[in-house]
Each structure stands twice: as C-alpha cells, then as structure tokens.
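ok new one. same drill as before - structure tokens go in, u give me an amino acid for every spot. 62 of them this time. try not to just spam alanines like last time pls lmao
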C-alpha cells in the first residue's frame, strides 16, 4: 500500500462545522486530519490542493 495515497485521501477531506469539504475549499482557520492528527490551515487554500503543500503550510497539531 502506498502511504502517499493514504495521506492524500485523509487530507482531501476537511471538517468545517461538522461538514466535510474538499481540500480546495479550505479557508484560513479550517482544520484537517493529517497522519492521524488534527491540523489548522493557516493559509488561503485556493491555490494549494496537494497534500505535499499542506504538509508544509499546516501549523499544528491543534
């Protein structure tokens, strides 16, 4: 099993107010799960959809 694919599936689903939203719709302050931890998105997500980018731009865990 490719770990990268597992990570990408996890990061692409983001909880916002009890709803799951696509990664590309992330906004500042949203939180997402990455490698089993919850993280807080600190940048505008409109330009950044890949899990590699969010690994760099995440500031967490929260």
């Amino acid at each position: 099993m490719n770990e990268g694919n597992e990570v990408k599936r996890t990061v692409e689903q983001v909880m916002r107010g009890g709803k799951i939203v696509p990664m590309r719709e992330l906004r500042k302050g949203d939180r997402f799960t990455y490698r089993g931890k919850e993280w807080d998105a600190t940048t505008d997500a409109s330009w950044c959809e890949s899990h590699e980018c969010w690994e760099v731009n995440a500031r967490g865990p929260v």
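Helices lie at 3-11, 51-57. and btw The first strand starts at residue 13 and ends at 16.
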